[in-house]
């Protein structure tokens, strides 16, 4: 029997999942089960977030891992609204000129024509995941890091069956794993695993056990750090022991706006949260939500709002410690941008893409709500599938390629500089609908993330959809090449009318539009929704 999934199809007959004690929504059922197990053991939403994220590191290793970064937006049971940013920067010795020379030597081009590679050691930035997990538990959790990692360690050492979508992603990403260590860690028997095949990742399991026993320091100091630095430097990269040892996560204040009577919170720069907020503000100024969600009028206005927000975000958003980032989320500025938009599409809105590397990136997202009133949106990624393709010795840690988002143009705001954090696509979301009505949410997939936030929130706030309906509804995606990608579930007449307005419409398969999750607590009732575009599962109890 052919078990190859047809990922070009997407239908859903799901109901919103309701619970009273806890809900976990994420992109893989085994990971959601790990989070629920932690809640049942007395953990809160933050303990469960780490359990779920760690499990995803194992069962969805194409998209996330210890070699990446982690971010959170949350509202605690006592009313605190906060954000965690555990995001590493470029190596301290990675100067623009040195990187350009190494790229030029590898590609046999003039250094002035060099651009950041997509994969490889020069794209590796300091990984933030392990310290981010640890700090989440220490500052916000109830249990230990050791307890939070139990399910992930079990999956890695005892094995897990690979699900359909992840099996396809694994096969498509196999060519990225070019080194002997990478192939040994993630290509058992020299190939990507097939659907339903039981896979063990013993190296990753051993590393996680060491983190459980000794804390995150084992990744940033000692022999694991030695393995990471040796692997990167032996391949021509710049990452050093000091880069790892000096890394610390940070708690930051979210940025916010209002839309449809709700308060919407996002991460500040270096993340693209401002893109989502500007898009919401411009859409509001255009009264896009007054039109039906599947109408050409709604899609046209929201897509044009997105063009402006992406234009501004991709040009201005960078590490705020290296440059001032203008306030893009003001209502008055949105009115000015909205005034540029007419009844037809504009094709002259230039997008200053930071090296063009985020278009089809993937990640994992999880959202959790518990009975105490904590809600958290937690997002963890290595950027592209298997990140840089560089795996650190026999640790099982695949290192991220987030540095590919830097520009090697010395005039670009997002240019590479030592210690600088790149433009970051990851944006968990948080919404306050009423005093005791909060939702943690998010949509995955590079530049799809702020566009997904816009569309899901409009579905909830303008159209009164349930959280599952809001996630299931067909999506569109403005692409940086100027095309408007749409799901095939839209009515053909709508697409024709969009084309008549000047949009370059392209029908794309569902995975192009990301996954998504929502966990909500409203007056003591918990609910969860998740996106069948991936292996999404919401579990409650």
Overview of the molecule:
The protein has 541 residues and is an alpha+beta fold. The chain is built from 18 helices and 19 strands. The chain has helices spanning 29-40, 45-59, 96-107, 129-140, 145-148, 150-158, 164-173, 180-186, 202-214, 217-220, 222-234, 241-245, 273-285, 296-316, 331-338, 448-461, 467-472, 492-500; strands at residues 17-19, 22-26, 69-75, 81-86, 160-161, 198-199, 250-252, 255-259, 262-266, 364-370, 375-381, 429-434, 437-443, 476-478, 483-487, 504-508, 516-522, 525-530, 537-540. The strands form four sheets. Strands 1-18-17-13-12-9-8 form a seven-stranded antiparallel sheet. The protein has a seven-stranded antiparallel sheet with strand order 7-4-3-11-10-2-19, with helices on one face. Strand 8 (255-259) and strand 9 (262-266) form a beta hairpin. The longest helix has 21 residues, at 296-316.
Largest sheet: 7 strands, antiparallel
The residue fraction in helices comes out at 25-40%
CA-based shape: globular
What ranges have pLDDT less than 50 throughout 5 or more consecutive residues? 1-5, 350-357
SS summary, helix count: 18
**Protein structure class:** alpha+beta
Mean pLDDT, all residues: 92
Number of DSSP strand runs: 19
Strand arrangement, largest sheet?
1-18-17-13-12-9-8
CA-CA gap between termini: 36 Å
CA-based gyration radius: 22 Å
Strand content: 15-25%
């Amino acid at each position: 029997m052919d078990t190859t999934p047809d990922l070009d199809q997407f239908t859903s007959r799901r109901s919103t999942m309701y619970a009273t004690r806890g809900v976990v929504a994420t992109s893989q059922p085994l990971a959601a089960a790990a989070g629920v197990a932690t809640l049942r053991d007395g953990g809160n939403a933050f303990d469960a977030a780490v359990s779920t994220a760690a499990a995803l590191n194992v069962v969805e290793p194409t998209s996330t891992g210890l070699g990446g970064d982690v971010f959170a937006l949350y509202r605690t049971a006592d009313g605190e609204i906060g954000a965690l940013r555990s995001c590493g920067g470029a190596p301290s010795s990675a100067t623009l000129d040195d990187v350009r020379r190494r790229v030029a030597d590898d590609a046999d081009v003039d250094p002035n024509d060099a651009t950041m590679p997509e994969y490889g050691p020069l794209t590796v930035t300091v990984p933030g995941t392990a310290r981010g997990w640890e700090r989440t538990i220490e500052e916000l959790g109830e249990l230990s890091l050791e307890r939070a990692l139990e399910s992930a360690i079990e999956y890695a050492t005892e094995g897990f069956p690979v699900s359909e979508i992840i099996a396809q992603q694994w096969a498509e990403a196999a060519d990225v794993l070019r080194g002997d260590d990478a192939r040994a860690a993630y290509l058992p028997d020299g190939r990507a695993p097939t659907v339903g095949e039981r896979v063990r990742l013993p190296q990753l399991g051993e590393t996680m056990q060491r983190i459980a026993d000794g804390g995150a320091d084992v990744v940033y100091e000692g022999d694991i750090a030695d393995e990471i630095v040796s692997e990167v430097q032996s391949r021509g990269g710049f990452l050093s022991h000091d880069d790892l040892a000096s890394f610390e996560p940070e708690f930051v204040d979210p940025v916010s706006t209002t839309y449809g009577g709700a308060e919407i919170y996002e991460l500040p720069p270096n993340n693209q949260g401002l893109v989502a907020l500007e898009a919401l503000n411009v859409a509001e100024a255009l009264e896009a939500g007054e039109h039906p969600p599947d109408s050409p009028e709604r899609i046209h206005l929201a897509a044009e709002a997105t063009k402006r927000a992406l234009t501004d975000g991709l040009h201005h958003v960078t590490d705020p410690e290296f440059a001032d980032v203008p306030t893009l989320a003001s209502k008055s500025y949105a009115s000015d941008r909205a005034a540029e938009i007419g009844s037809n599409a504009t094709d002259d809105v230039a997008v200053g893409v930071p090296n063009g590397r985020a278009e089809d990136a993937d990640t994992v997202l999880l959202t959790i709500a518990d009975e105490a009133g904590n809600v958290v949106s937690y997002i963890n990624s290595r950027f592209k599938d298997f990140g840089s393709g560089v795996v650190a010795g026999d640790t099982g840690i695949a290192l991220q390629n987030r540095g590919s988002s830097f520009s090697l143009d010395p005039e670009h705001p997002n240019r590479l500089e030592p210690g600088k954090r790149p433009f970051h696509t990851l944006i968990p979301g948080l919404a306050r609908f009423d005093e005791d009505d909060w939702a943690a949410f998010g949509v995955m997939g590079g530049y799809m993330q702020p566009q997904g936030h816009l569309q899901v929130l409009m579905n909830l706030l303008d159209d009164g959809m349930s959280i599952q309906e809001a996630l299931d509804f067909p999506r569109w995606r403005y692409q940086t090449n100027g095309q408007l990608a749409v799901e095939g579930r839209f009515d053909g007449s709508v697409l024709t009318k969009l084309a008549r307005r000047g949009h370059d419409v392209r029908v794309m398969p569902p995975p192009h539009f990301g996954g998504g999750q929502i966990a909500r607590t409203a007056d003591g009732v918990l609910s969860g929704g998740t996106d069948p575009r991936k292996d999404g599962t919401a579990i409650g109890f």
